[in-house]
């Protein structure tokens, strides 16, 4: 009996020793982030390491040099990185993978992960309300209520302090356009595009939280519904206003602002084109936003050497050559009743396509939802509202092909990612009711 017990004990011990021998041996492994042929020194970037059969997954973070150290069992792996950040108003994603990570004993076990940089605008034009509405009492058009909505199309806070606003010439899409020779834009392959009238900038720092927006009133930051019931209420302390305060040239009576909007929410400009008001088209603007400091915007607006006079003589036709490199986002609007005569005012490297619009009916130009990206956000589960009917496709215009009702979804707590392809025909539609009216 004792002999049998000894044999049994030895067998158990042998199995235990054999099991210990089968435990994987860990070796030191190092990964280095590489971008454009050089090390990318970035701390706290997550490196995802998957065993080739999918049996095990590991993660580690990089140090200040962009290197990540980890102990791994001998084997074959795929190491990948998907790092999101923001810079100069752009949403930046670094993607990359090394599919040939072979970890062995006695080998160097140091591997590079080559990354690609993908940029998209972090700050975008979400909505442009410019055509005004119809006054039911007078049956006349009312367009002093224009506004712009900037949106942070990312999950990180955006700095909009250096965002500037302007539009391309001519004012209307169907106007005679002297920038064309046959069917070619004069500046198609140049480093600039026209800025007409003025370039507006913020006078104080502006931060936009993730998936949030900022509203900028154009001519009057007031509750317009008190004058025209079908209009919009822009008398909100959170809103901004393109103020004529300190601009002696802009004397038009439509410049007025509610006391709720304080001075630090005023924008300013140095007009360079003749006129008593900023002449944003009320039917077909080629509107865009750029990025430059207040000092740079002021200097550009005052620099006669930066003016172009293709449209005519100064000062009535002064046009500033705005650097394409500073353009952040743009929307090309064509007059719906003048499509045949309309021409694009943006070169193809800035924007392609257009959205047709009709003024005086309370419509706005609103950005389409990126359906795939929005549905992919885990936090949106159960919060997205579908069967969107807010477009004007059934009357005279277009609608959002995603089928997602962005404003209703936001009200339900969803985060919306909007389309950003630099093609206005794909990125925008005409909305029946300006979003501020819901």
Describe the structure in brief.
By secondary structure, this protein is mainly beta.
Could you explain the architecture of this structure?
There is one protein chain. The chain has 438 residues and is mainly beta. It folds into 2 domains: 24-120, Immunoglobulin-like (Sandwich); 122-364 and 432-437, no CATH class. Helices cover 11% and strands 36% of the residues. The chain has 5 helices and 31 strands. The protein has helices spanning 2-22, 294-302, 371-376, 406-411, 424-427, and strands at residues 26-35, 38-39, 46-51, 57-61, 67-73, 75-87, 90-103, 110-121, 123-129, 133-135, 140-142, 147-152, 158-159, 163-167, 180-181, 184-185, 192-196, 200-202, 207-208, 213-217, 220-221, 240-242, 256-257, 266-269, 286-291, 307-308, 319-323, 327-335, 355-357, 364-367, 428-431. A 12-stranded mixed beta sheet has the order 29-28-25-14-18-24-22-20-12-9-30-31. Strands 1, 2, 3, 4, 5, 6, 7 and 8 form an 8-stranded mixed beta sheet that branches. It has a 3-stranded antiparallel beta sheet with strand order 17-27-26, with no helix packed on it. A hairpin with a 6-residue loop joins strand 7 (90-103) and strand 8. The radius of gyration is 29 Å and the shape is elongated. The termini are far apart. The model is unreliable at 1-20 (pLDDT under 50).
């Amino acid at each position: 009996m004792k002999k049998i017990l000894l044999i049994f004990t030895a067998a158990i011990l042998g199995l235990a020793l054999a099991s210990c021998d089968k435990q994987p041996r860990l070796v030191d492994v190092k990964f280095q982030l590489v971008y454009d042929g050089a090390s990318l020194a970035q701390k706290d970037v997550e490196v995802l390491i998957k065993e080739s059969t999918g049996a095990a997954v590991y993660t580690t973070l990089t140090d200040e040099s962009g290197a990540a150290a980890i102990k791994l069992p001998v084997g074959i792996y795929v190491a990948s990185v998907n790092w999101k950040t923001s810079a100069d108003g752009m949403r930046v994603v670094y993607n990359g993978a090394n599919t040939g990570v072979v970890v062995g004993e006695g080998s160097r076990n140091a591997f590079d992960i080559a990354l690609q940089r993908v940029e998209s605008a972090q700050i975008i034009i979400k909505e442009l309300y410019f055509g005004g509405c119809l006054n039911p009492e007078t049956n006349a058009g009312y367009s002093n209520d224009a506004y712009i909505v900037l949106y942070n199309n990312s999950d990180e806070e955006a700095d909009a302090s250096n965002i500037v606003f302007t539009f391309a010439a001519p004012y209307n899409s169907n106007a005679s356009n002297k920038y064309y020779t046959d069917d070619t834009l004069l500046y198609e392959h140049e480093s600039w595009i026209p800025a007409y009238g003025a370039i507006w900038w913020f006078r104080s720092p502006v931060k936009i939280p993730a998936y949030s927006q900022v509203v900028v009133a154009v001519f009057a930051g007031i509750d317009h519904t008190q004058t025209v019931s079908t209009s919009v209420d822009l008398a909100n302390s959170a809103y901004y206003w393109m103020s004529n305060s300190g601009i002696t040239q802009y004397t038009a009576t439509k410049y007025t602002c509610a006391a709720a909007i304080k001075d630090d929410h005023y924008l300013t400009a140095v007009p360079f084109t003749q006129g008593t008001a900023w002449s944003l088209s009320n039917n077909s603007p080629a509107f865009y936003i750029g990025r430059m400091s207040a000092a740079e915007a002021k200097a550009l607006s005052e620099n006669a050497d930066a003016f172009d006079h293709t449209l005519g003589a100064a000062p009535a036709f002064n046009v500033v050559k705005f650097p394409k490199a500073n353009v952040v986002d743009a929307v090309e609007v064509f007059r719906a009743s003048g499509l045949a005569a309309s021409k694009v005012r943006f070169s193809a490297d800035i924007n392609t396509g257009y959205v047709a619009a009709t003024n005086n009916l309370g419509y706005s130009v609103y950005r389409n939802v990126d359906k795939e990206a929005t549905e992919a956000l885990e936090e949106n589960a159960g919060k997205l509202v579908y069967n969107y009917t807010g477009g004007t496709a059934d009357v005279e215009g277009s609608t959002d092909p995603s089928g997602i009702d962005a404003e209703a979804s936001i009200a339900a707590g969803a985060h919306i990612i909007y389309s950003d392809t630099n093609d206005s025909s794909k990125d925008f539609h005409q909305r029946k009711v300006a979003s501020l009216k819901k």
